[in-house]
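To whoever is covering the structure queue this week,

Two jobs came back overnight. Logging them here so there's a record in the thread.

Job A:
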Amino acid sequence: MHILITGAAGMIGRKLVDRLVADQGLGGRAIAALTLLDIVAPLSPPGFAGAVRAMEADLATPGAAESAVAARPDVIFHLAAVVSGEAEADFDKGYRVNLDGTRALFDAIRRIGAPYRPRVVFTSSIAAYGAPFPEVIDDDFRTTPLTSYGTQKVINELLLADYARRGILDGIGIRLPNICIRPGAPNKAASGFFSSILREPLAGQEAVLPVDEAVRMWHASPRAAVGFLIHAATIDLAPLGGRRSLMMPGVSASVGEQIDALRRVAGEAAVRLIRRAPDPAMNAMFKTIPGRFDTRRAAALGFTAETSFDAIVEAHIQDERALGSR
């Protein structure tokens, strides 16, 4: 099996590579080759005996997507994207990377033609949804995003479904919850504070909280996100029909409930490291983000995640702090 991962140098991309190498295969098939693509050169994974091609490329650049799929990878994990805050701040960059790059990838697959038809796992987002929201959002709730990032993701979902309908690719879009706790340094995602108010205090550092404690979000750990990707790459997609994208399971938690979980794990001293710095614009924006889902469609397909926020914190401790990454 040959696997292509776009966005392979990002946090989830690196963790996905590590998981694939540890598993030594995908869906019962050995992995013979990995193509790892990002705008910075991804590192070759240690311990992998197969061929590795590390590509430093932007999919929106002419010829980059064609080069990435020239060897006809069997499975493509399309993770590459400009994150939410950056997509909102830089309109042109967001559409060029998040939309034009995805269209270039899909068209590069199309130009190879039959019988080539790879499994494509596309990472969409909770930002696909727009207010006003019911108390719990089910699988039939409309996708009417209120950000440029969310709009770009929904357009890509529609492209994925159409290219799948026409037999060009075998695609599934997984709408990721807020991934928390993200390791390493903060990125430009607007939702980054959900991770930093836990990650930094757990490491004995101050964190800034820009919103009030009532703000609620749908969360899953990086460990769960990798599990979603692996599962999406291996299951029968026939039950999806024409609705190729679906929301992933997660944990609904308010900021206050996150802080309570931190208190239970690390004590009051860690909680005192959270500094309140209210940002009315940020607070208003996150009031338009959905915080509770009924994901029975994903559950019926076998997708699983943590069932408590304490479990998300413990996953971070086990996967990151035990490895000395923070």
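Job B:
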Amino acid sequence: MSKRRSRYALKNNVHSIGFHVIPKNEKQNRLIRSIQMYPIVVTIGCAGTGKTYCSTGAIASLYQKGNYEKIVITRANVPTGKTLGHFPGTIQDKMTPWLMPMLEVLEEAFSKEKYKYMLNKGEIEIQPIETIRGRSYKNSLVLVDEAQNLSIEELKAITTRLGENSKLVLMGDPAQSDVKNGQDLMTFCSHVERSGILLPVIEFTVKDIVRSDIVAELVKMFIKEKI
């Protein structure tokens, strides 16, 4: 069993459908259950809390039950830090490096061979944010990472693309926004709450970090020093 597999207690069962992620704490449990129950879920929080891993694992588990046609993966088209420029190749080639946290979970969930097959067949779809406008996703599971970098216009475009029998998970860390005044995700959550819309927002804090003790200490330092 790999370090990552043991860390998050990912359980595979070859005699039944797929696998499931055993939550490490109550916040992870709430996140997984919310994804199962609601069409749209927002999860926010600092690095190391398992929000991306649990979200992607929950989506993979839902897909394996056979009620959905595809998994759609995307993220805000904003680099973290200095960019190396444009990558060559197809859209899939260009976006894959930015989507690795989610794609690695899917590869682990489905096996490397099945994962490649799903990519080739379009059952796993890598989709740029800018081309989501005008699309309508039916029978789909949509994962959006780095959502703290999305504008309110992009959030509007994405959340209104969801069709019948579909789910959307927005994942982000408002403390790590790479855009100026990048608080639109929190503004969106506030509007949702004031409107009384049943859309869970699962917020992780430093206390919920499960990755390692050193990660928790570093995140606390960054927050304290306002870095």
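Note for Job B: The radius of gyration is 17 Å.

Please reply-all if you pick these up so we don't duplicate work.
Q.
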